Fold this sequence. Notes:
- By secondary structure, the chain is an alpha/beta fold.
- It is built from four helices and eight strands; from the N terminus they run H-E-H-E-H-E-H-E-E-E-E-E.
- The protein has helices at 2-6, 21-33, 48-58, 84-100; strands spanning 11-13, 38-40, 65-75, 106-112, 122-128, 134-140, 142-154, 158-162.
- The strands form two sheets. The protein has a six-stranded mixed sheet with strand order 4-5-6-3-7-8, covered by helices on one side. It has a two-stranded parallel ribbon with strand order 1-2.
- It starts with a helix and ends in a 6-residue tail after the last strand.
Amino acid sequence: AKEALLNGKHVFVEKPLALKISECKELIDIAEQRAKILMVGHTFIYNDAVNMLKDYIDKGELGEIFYLYSQRLSLGRIRQDVNAMWNFAPHDVSIVLYFLDEDPRRVSAKGLTYIQKGIEDVVFMNLDFPSGVSAHIHISWLDPQKIRRMTVVGSQKMIIYDDVSTDA
């Protein structure tokens, strides 16, 4: 991505943008200095169902948002180059940030290692926002069932986004 930006190209990067904040800032600075688009592959914010939920939230149909939680679980491909959080969580984090339109004031995560030493297979992440909303993200590539679900709980209504449901 850096080389492409330095050569005057717009860049689309698959998530994650980088593994270090300093590398992200460097890429952003280069893109801004050269007036180039640097886009991260957070494809779910272009999903029709996610956009429908965003519309409900923005119109206040759910009332005051109390909290969100997501599960991105499966018994699937176990990677050796990144942990489950880096592999799966960027999707859920990007959706939460899109829904709430604010940055978290505090983020914490606990990773658990079972299969490979030093590579977390299961992660529980918490994000606390200035508005008082909390988001909880459960990531695992060791669960027996494939689940891609996000629940948004509001004062008036609640809604579930289930990305693997076959229900119409």
